[in-house]
Design brief:
Helices cover about 35% and strands about 40% of the residues. The chain is built from 5 helices and 7 strands, in the order E-H-H-E-E-H-E-E-E-E-H-H. The protein has helices spanning about 15-35, 40-45, 60-75, 135-140, 145-154; strands at about 5, 45-50, 60, 75-90, 90-105, 110-120, 125-130. The N and C termini lie far apart (about 40 Å). It comes from Rubripirellula amarantea. InterPro entries: NTF2-like_dom_sf, SnoaL-like.
Length: about 150
């Protein structure tokens, strides 16, 4: 597992609470996604968390988040993550990242671009809205007819 982050200076500097929130978000990316440790969901997500964009339905609560996390990690092996940027102000955050790994069924190496924005509550991830390039992922896995897309959209 590898983890990489491009760190840029913040102006004004982060407050102590923002530093703590940023550390929790970074730890979740590294330990939660790369290490495939679903038990960490409880340590990083608020009990009443609401997460969208990871699954067709909105994920509500840590039990659903843990199950979704476990299912996603089971499909993508040898994961690595790059955090392109993390912007945090108060309890609000925005993150851009890329995951790389090998898709379990096909054995194909893929990269998955993702962005997330949300809020923290009580020092935990409370709301998270994910924007994931599933079109690119499905294309790499051969599950999407890119010729047909080009034909329709140019």
């Amino acid at each position: 597992m590898s983890y990489n982050e491009e760190v840029f200076p913040t102006d004004p500097p982060l407050t102590q609470r923002e530093e703590i929130n940023a550390a929790l978000l970074r730890r979740w990316l590294l330990a939660g996604w790369e290490a495939n440790d679903s038990s960490l969901v409880d340590e990083h997500f608020h009990p009443q968390c609401i997460v969208s964009g990871l699954a067709p339905e909105v994920i509500e609560g840590v039990d659903e988040m843990r199950a979704t996390h476990r299912a996603m990690c089971a499909r993508l092996n040898h994961r690595s993550a790059t955090l392109h940027f993390l912007v945090i102000r108060g309890d609000q955050f925005a993150v851009s990242m890329e995951f790389e790994g090998r898709q379990q069924d096909s054995g194909i190496d893929v990269a998955l671009e993702s962005a997330c924005f949300g809020t923290m509550k009580d020092g935990l991830i409370y709301r998270a809205h994910n924007i994931i390039d599933y079109t690119g992922l499905y294309s790499k896995l051969g599950l999407l007819d890119t010729r047909k897309l080009a034909e329709h959209f140019g």
